Amino acid sequence: MRRPRGEPGSRAPRPTEGATCAGPGESCRGGACGADAGGRRELVLATVTTVSWRPRAGWVWGPLTPPTPRRRKAALSAPRALCEKTSPPFLGHPSGSPSPNSMLRVLLSAQASAARLSGLLLLPPVQPCYLGPSKWGDRPAGGGPHAGPVQGLQRLLEQARSPGELLRWLGQNPTKVRAHHYPVALRRLGQLLGSRPRPPPVEQATLQDLSQLIIRNCPSFDIHTIHVCLHLAVLLGFPSDGPLVCALERERRFRLPPKPPPPLQPVLRGGQRLEAALSCPRFLRYPRQHLIRSLAEAGPEELTPHVMVLLAQHLARHRLREPQLLEAIAHFLVVQEAQLSSKVVQKLVLPFGRLNYLPLEQQFMPCLERILAREAGVAPLATVNILMSLCQLRCLPFRVLHFVFSPSFINHVSGTPHALIVRRYLSLLDTAVELELPGYQGPRLPRRQQVPIFPQPLITDRARSNHKDIVAEGLRQLLGEEKYRQDLTVPPGYCTDFLLCVSSSGAVLPVRTQDPFLPYPPRSCPRGQAASQPTTHDPAQRVVLMLRERWHFCRDGRVLLGSRALRERHLGLMGYQLLPLPFEELESQRGLPQLKSYLRQKLQALGLRWGPEGG
Questions:
Q1: 316 near 355, Cβ under 8 Å?
Q2: 31: Cβ contacts below 8 Å, ≥ 6 apart
Q3: CA–CA gap between residue 39 and residue 1 (Å, rounded)
Q4: CA 176, 90, 112 angle in degrees (round to 5)?
Q5: Residue 501 in contact with residue 514, Cβ under 8 Å?
Q6: What is the C-alpha separation between 455 and 493, in angstroms, rounded?
Q7: Tell me: the pLDDT tens digits for 396-451?
Q8: Coil, strand or helix: which one is 120?
Q9: Which positions fall inside the RAP domain (predicted)?
């Protein structure tokens, strides 16, 4: 028996109560919907302001015209199955869609305008909607058989309010848990542990159970899920040697592609091992003892000219003054004299001149003289290169000098592509003969053929950061700009670092009032005689400050390189007074005031005076 409309227990629906409109696939919250005792279904709609006035994608607007009596009767007599065909849940009705008679009854009885009702009647589409793949993996199209439970479990994990709740959702739904749920659980755990102001309490048993779940299921993870879980586990503070991190790391390594086996290294003997070490672009890392051991293990037949040339270039390039290796090169040159050409010999002799090392091998110089006499006319550039190395060692053979200074040799090299470099080397040899060989009576290089030897600072001095700039500033503040010259090239072509003109009383004179060059050849001796003790009639002396940087020496030693020692030796023989400034002393000065004090002590030690008292 149907209850009258006005009886107690039944009240008219209020517009401010009831369900909040929800979108497709969402449940109704706070709705008063269902069937009463008499079997009558009613749906109460709330006209709250939170309902969007813009429809979502896929929704269609319903008719807003009030139904006529005929339409009302047709709607009341419609079969109930009509409302059951609507697949997505609609508003707050338990079956997903309200019956047409209850819908129309509400619309007719609601005390609301058409404008307020227009935001309520949103009909969802019938076809299922697929929102695309999530970041944890693809979902079956159209929702699939497991799309709903899997997505629902992920939402539950993301909304969990405690670690225990996380563990409950994972443990109580084993058939719905997928691999991508575990990174979601770890991320949510990190959010819970970092929540403010008071994070929920966490029991160790809960963390252990969560770890065991991940360990038990990690063999089914893909490599991306393993990386994410491993990263999150480390961020959450799980120990690196704990079971969780170890299991994930083991699975990660298991999925890496296998490494190819290393190629078989051939067994190298002494000479081959030495050649391999010297040919490696990182052979500076090989210690000297490794080179010495490889050389000692090599037999005489394994030491080829190519290997010894590599060794000689290695020593020269890296300024390694290693006597045992240099003696081995000298011995090889003497033994293989008949098989070596001058082009190979020039490379073998290079480290001796550069490193300022005269070998103990007794037959070294006689062997070179024989090779030069045999090859001088065949390879003029190689001949001059060998003589340059011997010049640095002060071991110039007279017989070969006669040949290279002869007009026929000079005319022969003048038409070659390397004529300029040969003339520069011959000019240096002529200077060495002038200053160091008093007994030489043979031909000399004509003056018209002479060129400056080193007309500018060396490339290494220009490229590397040295102390020249700060020394120049110290001299400028100490003496003044007019009392020194920087990078001045003096005859016969040597570049000086700093040059001072000093009177006989020791006063530093302005350079512009004096000739900064000493005469060359020295006036004390005619051409062809030695200038070991030059004397000049000029009362002013020339003091040359020589910077001795770290790269001017052999590595790990105090021996100047051959070219630097030759320059200082020749400048001293020409009459210049040298004042060396070692790099160790310059590096120990902290700041410009200390450097000025250092330079003052150096200059005063020579008896120099400047300023008001020096004139």
A1: yes
A2: 18, 19, 20, 43, 44, 91, 92, 93
A3: 10
A4: 150
A5: yes
A6: 5
A7: 999 999 999 999 999 988 888 888 899 999 999 999 999 999 889 999 999 898 88
A8: coil
A9: 543-601
